[in-house]
# Entry
Amino acid sequence: MTTAETTLSDAVPPEAADLKPKRPTNRAPEGIRTFTVCRQNDETGVSGEGVIVEGCRFATGHTVIHWLTPAPRGSIAFFDNFDDFIKIHVSSHPTNGTIITYDDGEQTIYGIDGSVQKNEAPCEPKENKEAIEVANGI
# Structure
């Protein structure tokens, strides 16, 4: 049988590990990191409370977010870097009590007093609210 006659059934199945996304080269050493944004309050009354955004940060820093409101469609926004997203949608609304949770379970909690707390382990929603209250002296 020639190479051209090789069928899919003759091909060696790839190992599962070979199919998983790999960390990029040194040009993008961190890869893609996904996250959600949860607001404990909504000072503007526009986006609502709870998980309002899902997003991803590329190794280059470019950030894409998908607003989950208004349901069912929402909208998509692009940022040149993650810090721009934080400045526009998190730091500018300090009383929202925003929690960013990454795909690996790490969380960043933005308190109403401007404090920023990082948690390595995932928290349950009740614990998130308590962490925000402690950070804000409530």
